[in-house]
Design a protein that fits this description.
The structure is a homodimer of 237-residue chains. Chain A is of the alpha/beta class. Helices cover 42% and strands 20% of the residues of chain A. Chain A has 9 helices and 11 strands. In chain A, the strands form 3 sheets. In chain A, strands 2-1-3-4-5 form a 5-stranded parallel sheet, sandwiched between helices. In chain A, strands 6-7-8-9 form a 4-stranded antiparallel sheet. In chain A, helix 1 packs across helix 5. At the A-B interface, helix 4 and helix 5 of A face helix 4 and helix 5 of B. Chain A binds a DNA duplex (30 and 30 nucleotides) through helix 7 and helix 9.
Chain lengths: 237, 237
DNA sequence: TAAAACTTTAACAAAACTGTGGCAATTATG
DNA sequence: CATAATTGCCACAGTTTTGTTAAAGTTTTA
């Protein structure tokens, strides 16, 4: 599945230039021509990263960035701000508002792509590195091999994806609804309790993978009333 | 615990300037004067972020960055590269090598601090995001972890929410009716006395969290006839 | 000082939540 | 086509959480 990047810019030339370069670098590009449209698309197609022009009609990049940061479901969505003005005040304002990076025009295509990649590596390592690690768990997304303490672990597709989602956000609590959305996709109807069942299967699989009798500690934390998260075992257990 | 930042630069003035500004911004700064020393310090004191000068004797920033990226234990350590030259080639090289950000001299203190904060936000979400603090109490709403004086505290969902509501308004007195509204929602009928019970449970939980016999002071203030509020302990209790 | 007003907290039953074996349906796999 | 694997759901059991009540403790008021 290609990495989706949303670009919002009201200037067609600019939009074209950006799309072309990111497309060439292998990203799937979605375009928006103003802030409102961008917001709709974000809600709808869950891009992995967004690039916002500072100045746009209706909703400016800054406003949009603020909005995104204020909503739980987009709070961690990587945002790059784009501005014609290079002055420092804008720069710091952009970053302080919660943008993850700031590029001032004119910029080189190379730099743009580098910054996008660097930001993705930081925020969604799975998309770039395709090896996820947590404690002694390793998940290679290319080969779909999973190991715990170097012992192979067998997982079904759903459990595997579930694990990947958790490992991309180590420690963060995800509600059943969020997990359904992230793992199953957001137009599939399944019971929330089904998450529990898969979590149970996942636990069983990763907590006793090896043949020798070693017992592993539970890396999955149930947060009563909220959902599930990964947790590093404390010294006591 | 303060966030530790390592700065490696062979030029004393530069080092001083950086330290001063980051120190003022509330970070704990550790200094290194060349790449080798930086490496030693990283292994030794586990900084949360490092700032590397591009040109340094013995081991350059670029080399050091490569080294860090190649080791599992520092693979995800946030790195900012610093360079005298602003040309794009360096810029993209730096980012491609795995640095998380790149700042070219001369830079403004404001921008530096903004970039550091932005980088920390995305690499160590727990340090920046969704965290409520009051005195020695910390409530991380992302991971749903609560600690008092760094000791974990176990809370049920209701108590947790109650605490969050109080911590969002430190010191302000909230009536039982307000608390019912904020915590339970405004179309639920529960006895006002119930608030007392939960407050009592909350107190018990946060005022004696640790195993060692330490006794913590009561952070919750009962305002007779009005309601409850958080209070910082005075010196006497 | 006694009564009144208010708060704390133990106890308990009800409600809510979670873990998991089992089952049928569906989907790969050989 | 037969067999195995995967998936979603139900239902029961076991826990934890929650709301209420009531008794006991404090503070304020008259």
């Amino acid at each position: 599945m290609a990495i989706k990047i949303l670009i919002a810019d009201d200037e067609p030339n600019q939009l074209e230039l950006l799309s072309f370069n990111l497309g060439k670098a292998g990203y799937e590009v979605i375009r928006a021509e103003d802030g409102q449209q961008a917001l709709d698309i974000i809600e709808d197609s869950h891009p992995d990263l967004v690039i916002l022009d500072w100045m746009m009609p209706h909703i400016s990049g800054i406003e949009l960035c603020r909005t995104l940061r204020s909503r739980p479901e987009t709070r961690h969505l990587p945002v790059i701000l784009l501005s014609a003005r290079g002055d420092e005040c804008d720069r710091t304002l952009g970053l302080d508002i919660g943008a993850d990076d700031y590029i001032s025009k004119p910029f080189s295509p190379r730099e743009l792509v580098s910054r996008v990649t660097a930001l993705l590596r930081r925020s969604r390592p799975a998309l770039i590195d395709d090896v996820l690690e947590f404690h002694d768990l390793v998940l290679n997304q290319t080969t779909m091999e999973i190991t715990r303490a170097d012992q192979p672990v067998a997982l079904g597709p759903k459990e595997c994806r579930l694990l990947a989602i958790l490992m991309e956000r180590p420690g963060r609590v995800l509600s059943r609804a969020q997990l359904l959305d992230l793992v199953w996709g957001h137009n599939v109807y399944v019971e929330e309790r089904t998450v529990d069942v898969h979590m149970s299967r996942l636990r069983k699989a990763i907590n006793q993978p090896s043949k020798n009798g070693t017992v592993y500690s539970d890396l999955i934390r149930t947060v009563r009333g909220s959902g599930y998260a990964l947790k590093a075992p404390s010294d006591s257990d």
